[in-house]
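Before drawing any conclusions, I looked closely at one protein's amino acid sequence and its backbone structure tokens, quoted below without any editing.
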Amino acid sequence: MNIKQLNPDASPRAAFGAELRRVREELGMTQDQLAERTGYSPGHISSLETGRKSPTLRFARKADRAFGTGSKFENLFFDLRATSLLQGFGDYMAHEARAVELRLFDLGIIPGLLQTPEYAEAITRGAVRRGSITQIQANERLEVLAGRQAKVFRQPPPLLFAVLDESCLWRPVGGPKVMRAQLDRLVEVSELPNVTIQIAPYAMAESRAFDLPIYLLTLPDHSVAAYSESSQRGHFERDPDAVRPLLTDYHHLQVEALSQAASVALIRKAREELQ
């Protein structure tokens, strides 16, 4: 049989296909057997293994169940979808979709899960103008973000705690019209029973716990994972010894930040001052 050889480093799609074939063969499973277990045709399996087709999230999860590989292929799927995003973000997204609690901190930019489509588009448009990403990658980022928002605001929704540095309110992304709608969105979301929004005011100065964005996820098994990023890469962490200090710092941040009522008042003030 003439088996096409794949270079896993050629693309995320090739990496997915090569790993699918490797695990299947390691378990002594034929393409026909995998097709039967996943509900897909043998031809579809072959197309995925040779990189001719892109996998879907549904297939990735069925493959994990068929192989008993936990969330390996689900994570590979998100890595494939997140080629325009920072390294490590694919792992984070796979867990974000299952989280029962999310704790977010951001500065300068409203967190993606709380962004309006127009605000998100303005952010990606700026990245395209700078040459940081292509228009195709910008479109991919927006598609990924829309999918993340749909999962997080599912029913029943997870608890969401967001602490925003005050700088998020005063940076007029997309111009006054876009920014007013974005601030209105924050007020609207803050009224949801599962959402708490707080502002870390400038007055916190050096007592603010974080200088970079940080996201903490509480998963269904009560473990906590963390994601942090710099301008060059993201880092997903599940080691309890590494995550615990971040969770402690986040609790301190929440205590020092403005209450939700005071935060909403400041958001409304920022909106009124937009020209």
Notes: The CA atoms of residues 200 and 206 lie 11 Å apart.
